Amino acid sequence: MSRTVYVNGAYVPEEEAMVSVFDRGFLFADAIYEVTAVLDGKICEWDGHIARLQRSLGEIGMPMPMSSEELLEVHREIVKRNNMEEGAIYLQVTRGATDRDFVIPKDLPQTVVLFTQAKSLTGTKSGLRVISVPDIRWGRRDIKTVQLLAASMCKSEAKKQGKDDAWMIEDGFVTEGSSNNTYIVTEEGKIITRNLSNSILPGITRKSVLRIAEELDLEIEERPFTIAEAQKAVEAFMTAATSFVTPVIEIDGVKLGDGTPGPVSKRLCEVYIEESRKASC
Ligand code: PDD
Question: Which of these is catalytic: 42, 106, 125, 144?
């Protein structure tokens, strides 16, 4: 069945949706995106996603294409038109279309695209196997741009090796997963995750999960960690809007703990889903 997608003010069947070949999102990756989860047909973590969108756009000198209220309305409408109960909404805002030029143009009408991806987010997770790869992405990973080729290559390499995802390494330390933030849990029960900086995306799920961990009286340390340290951890997990809290059970062929999802990630996942259902809008 064809989805209804949103392109520049119109809701159209996906086959009819069109963006110019001169769009700077296509030619220069001059575009910002957000991916927002949907539970029970409602939008999760709206405040976080809209704030990060605004920040990312600002960092590359682009305005918001419409108000936050209008954007929320478009998110709700696309969920409704696609009868989606659970899954994700992809939003992309590009600088617009104009003749190809490296100089960033001013005041173009922006391109705004949204589409839905129905997907189960709340099913039981068996745990992922990850490999480590060099982080070859650009230096401003805190901005959510659509330059995802490096991340896509890393994840494909993991799949080629029969694994599930890749954790990227820079200067000996893990930055993040191909499209998620990463965590390890020490024998003493302490959660370690990389501190925020230009090196990683400030995950919306990360922020909520760290708050929940604090409320559960779990100790948290925000600092870089190595693969060797991760391989000694009793458990590990990753977070993203499209997978919530997902356990990691193997890193570069080394099993963590007993090789099954650990209690900390399981508990955080349960509470995160519970809270997201309540707070969705
Ligand atoms: N990616 N780090 C990277 C590099 C990401 O691409 C993502 C999310 C995250 C987690 O952020 P959040 O919790 O806000 O989803 C961290 C989205 C899901 C994607 O590209 O599909």
Answer: 144
Catalytic residue check, 207? no
Residue 123 lies in a domain: no
Q: Whose CA is nearest to atom 3 of ligand 1?
A: 179
Rounded Cα distance between 17 and 23, Å, is 14
| CB 147, CB 32: distance < 8 Å | no
Q: Which amino acid is at 68?
A: S
Residue 262 domain boundaries: 128-279
Say how many Å lie between the CA of residue 82 and the centre of ligand 1.
23
* Residue 186 predicted with pLDDT over 80: yes
Q: Are strands 244-251 and 128-134 parallel, antiparallel or unpaired?
A: parallel
- CB-based contact 189:219 (threshold 8 Å): yes
The whole-number pLDDT of residue 124 equals 86
For the chain, the helix, strand and coil percentages under 3-state DSSP, each to the nearest 5: 30, 30, 40
118, 139, 162 — which closes off a domain? 118
Give the per-residue pLDDT at 54. Answer: 98
* Alpha-carbon span 174 to 224, nearest angstrom: 7
